[in-house]
Structures are given as C-alpha cells and as structure tokens.
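Reading a protein record of the kind used here takes only a little practice. The record below shows the convention in full:
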Amino acid sequence: MTPKRKSSLSASTSRRKLRAATGATCETTTQRVLRWWQRGFRKSSFSAIYGLFLLLPAALLTQTFFPVFSRATVEQGFWATEEFWFFALGAVMWTLAFFGGMWATGTPWPLHLYVFGHELTHAIWVWLSWGRVYEKKMWSADGGYIVTDTHNFWIALAPYFYPLYSLVVIVLYGAASLFYNVAHSPATFLLMTPLEWLFLLLGATWAFHLSFTIWMIPKGQTDLTTHGTFFSIVVIYIMNLVVLALFLIVAAPEITFASFGTELLHHTEDFSEAAWKVVRVVWVRMFPGHPLP
C-alpha cells in the first residue's frame, strides 16, 4: 500500500508563528529569504540542477512572450479592445482590494477562499493522477492540508500556477454558451455584456491567483521545499507564463498558436547559434590547432 502523504499550506501571518515554524529567532527579512532559498537548494541538489536546466526554456519563453504581448498591445491595437480593458479593469480592481485588505487588517482577504481553492487544486491534481484523498482541511484562515496516497511535484506546485477560479469562470461561460449565444448577446447586466463580464472576472480571478501566490511563496511552504525551492520557483514561473500566453492567444485575434510557436522557434534558433559560437570560441582557445570533431 502506498504511504499517505500530507500536502499543507501555511497561511499564518503571525511573525511569532512563522519564526517558531522555521526555527528562526532574530532574523531580518533578507536573512529569512536567504535561509529559505538555501534550504531549498540543500533539500534536493538534483532538483536544483533540474531547475538550472529549466532556466533555458524559461528565458526563451520570456523572450517570446513579452515582445509578442508588446507588439499585440501597442502596434496591433490590442490595448484598445474590450478584452484588454475589461481584463485590466478586473485585475486592477482585485489588486486594490488585496492591498486594501492588507492595509486595513494586516492580512489579505478573503483568505478562506484562497485556502479553499489552494487545497481543492491539490485534490483535483491528485484525482487526475488517479490518487485518493483521505483527509482534508480546506476552509480556514490559518492554512489547510490534504492527506493523499499520491504525491509528485505537479500535485505540490499546481496551486501556484493553476488559476482555479479563472478556470471556473471559463467553464461556466462555456456551459452557458451551449444553450445561449452569450458571445454576441446584446443583453447587459450592470451595463456590461456577458463577454465583458467574462474578461472582467478573468482579470479579477487571475490577479487573485497571482497576488496570493506571490504573498504565499516567501512563507516557507512545504509545497516548494519538498521538491527544492529553486526548482519549484522556476516551474511555477514557466507554467504561469504558459497560462498567460494561452490567455493572450485566445484574447488577441492577431496572435495564433502558430505565430507564437514560430516566434518561440526563432528565439530558440538564435540561442542555438549564439551557444554554438561560444562553444567554438572556447574550443579554439582551449585546443588551438584542433578543429571541432
């Protein structure tokens, strides 16, 4: 029988609780982050090596996404579309609510809702891996956990790149589209059409996911340290960029999967040529008079 594993989320914002949990006493924020980072490296040297190899696809994806987004937004007029503005409006509204909650109470809100989504995402990926969830704690402001017989880095890291509530919005919109032409509906609710509501809610839920992810990561989550902090962060970054790229391709008619893939291939070829030039220079200096085999 496969042993049960516990995946947990620590959402406590009490400095005393955090120090007791990590064994720190009089640390500055910089010292705490440095120790947390080094602990991730020591936890699994192989994971750190894998993370270093993943830096290349992360860099190529970054080099592809931001220029494509910039061209679509500025040169091709994507910034003037309803999709862009309502997505941005939703993101701004949630960001203001997030920092407003931090300013008013010292903690973001609604923390219960984030913990529920976080642990439910763990559970969903366990079920997708044909595993079982034996025990769970999902609705709590102090953090949650699930106990399962299946564990891998996808299950552990899924809540940090899998925007559950954004996917719920998309599924509900898709389900409504099966019975009603919501994409071209002139009907309005609070002066907005269904399509405008879709992108407003996508912006808000994506900002919800991103803000809580950034807020949670520095708290020494076992989800990250179990598989190596560095490796986990690189995977989280890549997968969030992939999700953003998917959003952009769907929302911007000027961008297609083919054009984005062509751009990515172009940057990969440029990197390969540059890397080969470096190899040739190093080889000539190390082994003068001996051509490359």
The radius of gyration is 22 Å.
